[in-house]
Amino acid sequence: MTESVQPAVAPAEVKPTLSQKFGKWIVALCGLIAAGLGLVKLIDQFTLPGCDASRTTSTVRDIFKGKDVELVTLDQIKSVTDDRQEKTCSAHIESKDETANVDYKVFWDGWTVKVLIETVRDEKPR
Length: 126
Fold this sequence. Notes:
Elements: H1 18-45, H2 54-66, E1 71-82, E2 86-95, E3 98-109, E4 112-125
Antiparallel strand pairs: 1-2, 2-3, 3-4
């Protein structure tokens, strides 16, 4: 007598449902968006912000606030020079008591971006 071996039956292949497929695509899409945002933030850390960038203007406001001068207006921002290592800028500022024009520069100090007010000119009372 010969013994016959029956072949093992492969388990039935379970196909993912539509919601499982959709879930995988959503997770992948969210991962790509998060990676893109992270890349933008990383690039932003290694580039010098422009004269009118929010980081720069908030720093200019903070500098004046540290001297007890609350700026009401910071506008007419112009780039005078634009280099990879330094940007020179001019702007019109107004407080509740005075108006003036300022010159400031944005530059690298090691790995840190710094803003320095160079001159305040054309000061006039309001």
